[in-house]
Amino acid sequence: MFKQLITGATRLFSTCGTFGEVDLVASSRGVVLSVMSRNYDTTGRLHEDGALAGLSVAEARRLSRLLDEAIAVAEDCVVDQPDFWSDPTIQHMAPGRVAR
Predict the structure, then answer these.
(1) Cα separation of 55 and 48, whole Å?
(2) Helix (H, G, I), strand (E, B), or coil: what is residue 94?
């Protein structure tokens, strides 16, 4: 969505997976964060939703600090169960429904 807005002064980060996509656009006026989610119901039907947030530089710095804290906690977590919702699991449960 934001790729049309990119200029030489704007940077883009984008990542996606089974459960959604995150796009981050930064410019001198602030940061725009776009989050798109993909969820599957019990019959395998895909449901999508999205949110868009404009952040000031100060808000983006606070988000960065909170992400650093969350990453530190996540690195110390012990995985007690298998990856039930991995990409291969979703593709097995809802074949033909996973579009990238």
Answers:
(1) 23
(2) coil
Coil vs helix vs strand at 23: strand
CA distance 16 to 100: 8
H or E stretch at 69: helix 57-76
Predicted TM-score (pTM) above 0.85: no
Structure tokens at 17: 């997976």
**Tens digits of residue pLDDT in 15-58:** 887 788 888 888 778 899 999 998 888 888 889 999 999 999 99
Q: How far apart are CA 100 and CA 78, in angstroms?
A: 30
Residue whose structure tokens are 């949110």: 51
Per-residue tokens: 99: 């579009």
Question: What is the CATH class of 11-93?
Answer: alpha beta
Both structure tokens of 80: 């007690």
